Amino acid sequence: MRLVLLGPPGAGKGTQAVHIARAFQMPRIATGDLFREHATQETDLGREAKAYMDRGELVPDDLVLRMVSERLRRADASDGFLFDGFPRTVAQAIALEDHLADAGTPLDVVVRFNIPESEIVRRIVNRRTCPTDGSVYHLDFAPPEHDDVCDLCGTPLVHRADDTEAVVRRRLEEYHAKTERLEYFYWERGLLRDVESVGPVEEVTRRTLAVLDDIADGDAA
Ligand SMILES: [Zn+2]
Fold first, then answer.
1. From the candidates 2, 50, 160, 169, which is the catalytic residue?
2. Number of domains into which the chain is organized
3. Ligand 1 centre from 75 Cα, in Å?
4. How many whole angstroms separate alpha carbon 205 and alpha carbon 14?
5. Residue 131 C-alpha to ligand 1 middle, in angstroms?
6. By the 8 A CB rule, do 195 and 204 touch?
7. What is the pLDDT of residues 131-184, one digit of tens each?
C-alpha cells in the first residue's frame, strides 16, 4: 500500500499515521524527520538543506524530492509507505507523481481526514502541555490524573499561548487556502478518499483501515 495522508492541524493525522504504518508494517515518511536525520548525519543533502534553513528560507522542492527519493530506495519502503505531511503543494505532488511513475509504483490512495472546525477548536483549546517534558493532555479526552499537573513529573501544566480559538481558526484558514489545490489534484486523479476523524482514536484508525482494505480489494479484483 502506498499512501498519502492529508488533514488539517488538530485532526489527529500524525497519530493515525503511526497506527496505520504499524498495521501495515510500512515506514511513515515525514519530511521534517528526513531533514533532521540528514542534518544529524551531516549528509550532503543535509548540509544543503541546512544552508537554506539557516538563511530562514524554505528548502526547495527539488532538494526535498531528492531526500524523499533516497528514502523510498531503502529496503523497508519496497512494499509500501505512508507519507505524513508531504506533499504540501501541487508542485511537490507532481514531482512525486513523476518519481513514482518512473519507479512503476504509483500511489494507491490519498486519505483526507475530515473533522468539523468546531471540533478542532475544542480539541486544541482544551489542550494542556507540560513545559518540562512536553507531555500533552486534554481536559476532555486525556486529562491528567491530578488537576493541572503533569502525570510524569508533577510540573504545573500550561495552556500554550497559540492554543486559542482565534489562532486555531487562522491556522485552519491558512491550511485550507494552501491545501485546496492539492486536494483537487488528487481528487481529479480519483485517489482522494475521506475519513471522518471524529470519535476515539481507535475508531478513526478502524475507519481508515476499512477504506484501505477496500482499495486493496479493488486492486486484486
Ligand atoms: Zn511533565
1. 160
2. 1
3. 37
4. 12
5. 7
6. yes
7. 999 999 988 888 999 989 999 999 999 998 888 899 999 999 999 999 999 999
pLDDT interval class at 220 (50, 70, 90)? low
Q: What is the pLDDT of residues 34-73, one digit of tens each?
A: 988 998 999 999 999 989 989 988 889 999 999 999 999 9
Concerning whether 160 is annotated as a catalytic residue, the answer is: yes
* Any domain includes 192: yes
Query: What predicted TM-score, i.e. pTM, was given to this entire model?
Result: 0.84
Report yes or no on 219 lying in a domain.
no
Q: What CATH code is carried by the domain that includes residue 173?
A: 3.40.50.300
155 Cα–ligand 1 center, Å: 5
Range of the domain at 91: 2-27+74-211
Asked whether the beta carbons of 4 and 111 are under 8 A apart, the reply is yes
Q: Which of 117, 136, 126, 139 is nearest to 198 (CA)?
A: 117
DSSP character at residue 77 = G
Compute, in angstroms, the gap from residue 132 CA to the centroid of ligand 1.
5
Active-site residue, 28 included = no
